[in-house]
Amino acid sequence: MTRLIGAAQLARLLGTWRDNQADYLALASAVHRLIVDGRLQPGIRLPAEREAALALGASRTTVTAAYGRLRDSGFLVSRRGAGSWTALPEGHQVATSGLWTPDDTSDVLDLGCAAMPAPVELLEAAREAVEELPAHAGRSGYTPIGLEALRGALAARYTERGLPTTPGQILICGGAQQAFDLCLRLLLSPGEQALVEAPTYANALVALTANRARVAAYGLTPTGWDPEAIGSALRQGRPRIGYLIPDFHNPTGHLMPADLREQLAVAAHQAGTDLIVDETFAELPIEDQVMPPPLAAFDRHARVLTIGGLSKSHWGGLRVGWIRAAGPVIQRLAALRTGLDMGSPVLEQLTAVHLLERDLLPARRAILRSRRDALVGALRETFPDWRFPVPAGGMSLWVELDAPVSTALARAAEAYRVRVAAGPRFGLDGLMERFIRVPFTLPEESLQEVVRRLALSRADVERGIAGPGRAPLDIVA
């Protein structure tokens, strides 16, 4: 099915696209940026030149020339009389963060994805899993719900956190992103409203768009959630689903207090809204603190579906995630899942069981705390005008810049072999240009080098160039 973007929506995504270049170059550069950071995926049909010109307040000649430059660089393909579609040129690939990147990334300091390498214990856990595999090899290997041992281990962890859970309330998935997609397929029909935070996880917005949801958002404050804003959005919009990240929110790092979790569970039930609660970072507090109970602990009407995974706490390459929900909901999800992939790999599930048996999280938290402190110190010294809360957990800083230049800064940083996600990736319609997300997952010395290169990039943005010795629009693949 062809996906379209309207001229008005494209204009909102582009925001203030004019700069000190010729208009056609500035427009081509701005559209290119939407493609390379994942806000415009390959295969999306752009509006016709005349419609785009009207929406953008530009001449048709400007749009025609911009489209032509994008075609020449391989980021657009056109058929006479049929239209133009976004594309990915040869030599580029899709990154896990949603960014389209050149193949050669060996020397890039990548902050596009908030995740750490695997712990050293992974190999030992994998060897134990291989030794255990023969006991499962005599069966089909299809596990739509997941292995009993893994579901039991996860259920026990929820119970320890104050949410009594049985293995029958757990469905194993291929990562938290697949868990989210399964929940959307079960709960949401095309055109129904989904309520999200602003900002929110960028790939959640991609999944909602793919499921043709009508997305509405309520804004987070500098200190977290506004109960009045959430309550008003639920009462007035009565969305079909709400997606939220209460535990070390991605990207802001906020932690939702227990009393608001209880209020939210009640308000969602009154509005007829099912909540998809993303707990990807719930086990990564990096300060000594008492964590609030899971939001589902306040659910009395089976309206909360909790998703989680091992990608952040352990390793993304394992691709183990899950959904925690009421038993009948899990059965419906399992039936839906059989039409997709029939179940997660048995060997990966066994490896996850053996990893969970090891107490790895204290060491992971200590690493993150040290790296967070190193990044905070470097940013405060180099950019005294940049503002950010220091999160008590998670993996990222949500940094407010000294000007609305995050897209330009991200583009300039590429010339210094730094990849960073601009703020608009985490919001709707091109907003949040004053913000960037900066994960603290790289080693301390690498984070200090990142800050040094960001300083060079910010100076280039101020001078109106895209990098050392480069033109401000270099989009040739």
Short description:
This protein has 477 residues and is an alpha/beta fold.
Quaternary state reads single chain
Indicate the overall shape: globular
Task: Count helical runs.
Answer: 16
CA-atom Rg in angstroms? 23 Å
Total strands: the figure is 17
Largest sheet, strands/sense/barrel: 7 strands, mixed
| Strand order, largest beta sheet | 8-14-13-12-11-9-10
| Beta-strand percent range | 15-25%
Instruction: Determine the N-to-C terminus distance.
Output: 27 Å
Unreliable spans are 467-477
Average of the residue pLDDT scores: 90
Given helix and strand content, the structural type is alpha/beta
Helix content: 40-55%
Structural account:
The chain has helices at residues 7-14, 23-36, 49-56, 60-72, 121-132, 134-137, 148-160, 176-187, 202-210, 227-237, 258-271, 327-337, 346-356, 361-382, 406-414, 444-463, and strands at residues 3-4, 44-46, 76-79, 83-86, 92-94, 100-102, 109-111, 170-173, 193-198, 214-219, 241-244, 274-278, 304-309, 321-324, 396-400, 418-422, 435-439. The protein has 477 residues and is α/β, with parallel strands linked by helices. It has a seven-stranded mixed sheet with strand order 8-14-13-12-11-9-10, with helices on both faces.
